[in-house]
Target: SMP-30/Gluconolactonase/LRE-like region domain-containing protein
Amino acid sequence: MNRGGASCSSREAHRHPAAGSSRPWRRRSLSFRLLLAVAAALSTPSATVEGTEQVRFLLISSASERRVSYIPIQGEGPLTTHMDLRPLISVSRQEEQQKDKENEDEEPAAAQQQPDTKAPPFLAQPAGICVDKRAHRLYVAEPLSRMILWYGLAVKDGQLTADDGPHVAQDNVDARWVAVDGAGDLFWTDSDNNKIMKVSTACLSDSANASKQPCNATDVNGTAMELYSAPITNQVSEPAGVKADVNHVYWGNQVAGMQDGALIKGNKTTAGGLKVHTLANNTEKAIGVCVAPRHIFYTDGEYGRIYGVRKGGSAVTVVAQTGLSQPRGCTWDDDNTIFVADKGLGTVWSFAAGTSLAPRMLSKHLPDHSFPGALDVAHYAVEAPQSDSIITKTVKYVSSIFGGGWTK
Model:
């Protein structure tokens, strides 16, 4: 049929079909099929979509609430509105998982006469947290159970999920704050015994855990390394928050900060000699520490302030104080934003990391007291399957019905 040479009379016939023609019904049938296609496309999982996109999350811990939650972060830079707080790990969730596991692993009564004397690891009082982005692990300091636990992280349909852990990274340790560097080495502060500890990523591997090889601070093989301790190093005085970059480890001291140093920088390997340098001694009590490309930020446990100093040393600057109550842990998002947990207000703040030290504007991202006892924060970013828009999903689904011609 020559469509380009269609006559006027044939076009009129299309506009006004003869009586008894089935064309109107065919059109209705086609419209109905299109509606069904739209509905089906909307319900099609986005996991089948080609391509990936970076999704970002802010994780928050609370020892008093005994849980770790998260906030999805949309786009780049500081958040400007209150975001949705979602659960990740909690005591109630673990209790349900433990009951399910016990039901699945039920054995005859005779086999249960010799119970396991060692209790399973359990989230009881989550304190400091950090994320190993390469291994997709969340580390949680557990001072009550004297452990450092870890959970595997994954993203499904835009939601952050944790595996059925916890798994034990370190046992029989006094850890309240933890950090992980780009190589996967784990650091923690032992405030009770005035120590800065480190364990290599090799000791934290799945194979080491599976073989039950000890990776503890008390291990006679020395797999965990005591980097700094008092009284050998005076600049370790009930250490709190800790962070590490390529060459150094940084920590804040909760006691005698003006005498022994509030913010300390030390080499993290023995290659260059274990040397320390006091970056700040302006406050008696420094708690949270976070590392940006040029600056170190830390929170003041006495006056509710956030300070900043250059990595190589400089005058200390009050970065933020208005509105803060009890700022605690903080983290950098690998871009240009610093997030801070506020224990007193039960919320999270953020400010721009910037390229210079100057007072910053704060943004609040949770209503006051919506997350009581907010203690520490950690940032997690990962490449996940890209989500299609409604229009794109519809076109793709309709195209699959009609042989692909709709997308050509």
